[in-house]
Inverse folding.
């Protein structure tokens, strides 16, 4: 059945049958087209402004970009959009035209009717913070509702992070938080996280802990990332005692904090640094009781703490336990264990460990050999020390300043002075310098053996390398030069003597 086009039941809203069809200038596509064209003019004017040093303003009552914005949209009989204002604000910040930002904001507040997106103010607050204009950021934050904008926690969190960057602005944080309640901004868990991160960054962990407690009191769940951040920052503080750190650690665990491997490692490292190796061992036991397998780093740090406290029985037990758990020691672990053996005068066992390391493919480093050299020189076993030093060269382990100083200190007064001078000259060729006290001892022994000429030559070489010998070396040369001293010369030698 074909419906008659003039029947009463025909659709009167179809353009073919409407008495007054829609105007093509009132549809959404036309409005979008006009706004797009206006934006193109605005962007083109911005480019021309960048190429011209002194752009002429279209309207003397407004800055150039604002005037261009209004005139470009007026030319197409449409109103400026939030996107256009955002573009103007970003352009002004990129071109450092700070003086033109307030007029744009004033016009946006008084003349426009649309709801301004919060993203514009978030961008400006961040810009003010980077430009160290914190007060401008605070003023803009409180002004946001006047732009017909519904504030959220995004702008609040951003402002708080800016204020917490420097200590002098911390006093403003409580005021901001109180006023935000009257502005109907709901503080969320993210706000507490921002405050804690900012406070930890400026080393105010005590305030961060208080914020964490407020967060728990307000009914929020314990955030593991926040706790980890507090622990990490806490262990970096220099004025914190190990007792205080353990109190905070225990308090967080009571609140339900489940530490991870990194959290345990941070606490263990802090305790060892404070000389509390046995407390670090207790934390390691807690870690295993919580079902977390310690890694090789944790064991190495605890081993170093036990060596420092001299509990060598625990050292062997912990090293064996580590092997039973299937952990493979690295060179740092072996170095700690070898150091413990050397402190017990078990140098032969330490040398066996080095051979064992090489069999397992763990190459000893210069720290390994230096530890052994200290033990051998301390035991007056210089023949093994010389052999170990040659072994270092053959295996490609570079001798460092500490190596040479260990050997020099061990050889002075125990071997022929000629061997000592050869080692010292080799050291000087590599631009390594002995300790002043060691060099003074060398010159003193040379003078005692009558090697005055050789001592003078050695003195010339080392002084030419900008090294300053001590008073004892000069005194030894003066007193053994073979000439008769006058009263003044003797007095000068006395002044050089250390008191």
């Amino acid at each position: 059945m074909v419906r008659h086009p003039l029947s009463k039941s025909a659709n009167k809203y179809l353009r073919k049958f409407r008495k007054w069809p829609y105007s093509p200038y009132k549809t959404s596509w036309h409005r979008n087209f006009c706004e797009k064209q206006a934006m193109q003019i605005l962007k083109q004017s911005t480019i021309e402004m960048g190429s011209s040093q002194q752009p002429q303003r279209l309207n003397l009552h407004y800055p150039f970009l604002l005037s261009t914005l209004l005139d470009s949209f007026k030319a197409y009989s449409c109103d400026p959009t939030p996107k256009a204002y955002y573009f103007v604000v970003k352009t002004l910040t990129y071109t450092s035209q700070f003086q033109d930002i307030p007029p744009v904001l004033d016009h946006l507040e008084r003349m426009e009717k649309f709801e301004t997106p919060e993203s514009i103010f978030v961008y400006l607050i961040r810009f003010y913070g980077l430009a160290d204009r914190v007060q401008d950021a605070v003023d803009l934050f409180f002004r946001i509702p006047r732009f017909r904008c519904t504030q959220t926690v995004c702008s609040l969190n951003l402002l708080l992070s800016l204020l917490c960057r420097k200590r002098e602005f911390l006093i403003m944080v409580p005021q901001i938080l109180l006023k935000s309640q009257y502005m109907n901004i709901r503080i969320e868990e993210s706000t507490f996280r921002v405050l804690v991160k900012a406070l930890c960054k400026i080393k105010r962990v005590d305030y961060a802990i208080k914020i964490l407690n407020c967060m728990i009191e307000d009914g929020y769940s314990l955030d593991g990332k926040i706790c980890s951040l507090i622990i990490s920052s806490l262990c970096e503080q220099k004025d914190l005692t190990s007792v205080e750190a353990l109190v905070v650690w225990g308090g967080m665990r009571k609140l339900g904090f489940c530490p991870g491997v990194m959290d345990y490692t941070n606490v263990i490292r802090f305790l060892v640094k404070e000389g509390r190796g046995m407390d670090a061992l207790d934390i390691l036991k807690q870690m295993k009781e919580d079902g977390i397998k310690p890694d090789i780093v944790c064991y190495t740090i605890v081993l170093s703490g036990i060596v420092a406290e001299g509990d060598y029985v625990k050292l062997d037990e912990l090293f064996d336990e580590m092997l039973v758990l299937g952990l493979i020691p690295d060179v740092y672990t072996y170095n700690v264990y070898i150091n413990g053996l050397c402190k017990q005068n078990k140098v032969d066992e330490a040398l066996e460990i080095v051979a064992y390391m090489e069999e397992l493919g763990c190459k000893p480093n210069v720290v390994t050999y230096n530890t052994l050299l200290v033990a051998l020189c301390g035991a007056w076993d210089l023949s093994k020390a010389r052999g170990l030093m040659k072994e270092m060269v053959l295996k490609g382990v570079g001798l460092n300043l500490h190596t040479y100083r260990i050997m020099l200190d061990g050889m002075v007064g125990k071997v022929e002075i000629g061997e000592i001078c050869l080692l010292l000259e080799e050291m000087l060729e590599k631009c390594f310098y002995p300790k002043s006290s060691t060099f003074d001892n060398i010159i003193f022994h040379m003078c005692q053996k009558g090697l005055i000429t050789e001592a003078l030559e050695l003195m010339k070489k080392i002084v030419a390398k900008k090294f300053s010998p001590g008073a004892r070396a000069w005194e030894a040369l003066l007193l053994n030069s073979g000439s008769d001293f006058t009263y003044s010369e003797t007095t000068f030698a006395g002044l050089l003597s250390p008191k």
In short: The chain has a mean pLDDT of 83. The longest helix spans residues 28-51. The chain has 26 helices and no strands.
